[in-house]
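Hello support,

Our group uses your service weekly, and this is the first time we've seen a run hang past the timeout. The protein is Pyrroline-5-carboxylate reductase. I'm not sure whether the cause is the sequence or the server load. Input pasted verbatim:
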Amino acid sequence: MKQCTIAFIGGGNMARSLIGGLISNQFTAENIHVSDANTEALDNLASRYNVKTFTDNLAAIADADVVILAVKPQQLQSVIRQIAPAWQQDKLLISIAAGIRLDDISRWLDFDGAAIVRAMPNTPSLVQAGATALCANNYVTSEQHELAESMLRAVGLALWISDEKQMDAVTALSGSGPAYFFLVLEALQTAGMELGLPEETARLLALETSFGAAKMALESDESACVLRQRVTSPGGTTERALDVFEQGDLRGLFKQALTAAAQRADELAEQLGQDYD
Ligand SMILES: NC(=O)C1=CN([C@@H]2O[C@H](COP(=O)(O)OP(=O)(O)OC[C@H]3O[C@@H](n4cnc5c(N)ncnc54)[C@H](OP(=O)(O)O)[C@@H]3O)[C@@H](O)[C@H]2O)C=CC1
Ligand SMILES: O=C(O)[C@@H]1CCC=N1
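Update from on-call engineer: The timeout came from a worker crash unrelated to the input. Re-ran successfully.
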């Protein structure tokens, strides 16, 4: 792809994951700008990745082709209103904020025909194993589609969603999803230790088992259900463990958890989608 200049506004957790993934995938550090109020975060990014850092958002976006808004949803409206006077037709705006809708972003930017993409990445982008869903407004050109997709594809899977309403479900599944797997990892490790394994042994076994299961599911033509059944010998150990999960309604808990996350995204959109300027 052509080397474009990408400006991140907000240099926190998600920006760091995307920047690390992009640079490991041959994006040039000098074409990556990061602007943040927190100079310590900027210093860390500059020393680790050699990106150009700014404390002035307008300076960071001045010659950028793509501007990625990586601030918290609560900070999004004021950041967009701040950069709006400097907006130019040929720039692409990408928001990764949970919940906040394309219409609200567009209203705050107040620029006729502004090309805007809403994206929901996740932190494994840092190791090029991210999963991102994207959703574009009608002003995004085919070249900008390709640009947004190729940036996110450089850090993992990138899928377009045509119905923006599905972005809340995406946020609940893959945006927040790494945290669910980290929780499972913690729980596996702790349970292993409680059964007498040394901490490092439990950690490594839990990690490799998680990695192996995900890799196997990714590389197999079989469904997760079939792969699970192949581990489960009738009358064996796995069956006993799975019975405990089913009795505890693990599936129901996941449904409740994802529903709660999607509802929170919708709530953020309702609360923060109001104009306050
Ligand atoms: N973390 C994740 O896994 C994911 C997050 N997201 C979305 O990404 C966005 C960022 O999340 P995350 O990285 O976790 O949040 P962080 O709080 O880690 O990062 C946001 C950064 O923006 C800085 N900031 C605040 N105000 C401004 C401003 N006016 N101009 C420039 N920078 C500013 C913050 O500084 P300070 O701390 O000083 O306020 C902070 O360093 C959120 O909208 C979230 O919904 C999406 C997918 C996954
Ligand atoms: O927890 C959050 O709100 C953000 C969005 C998805 C992952 N982290």
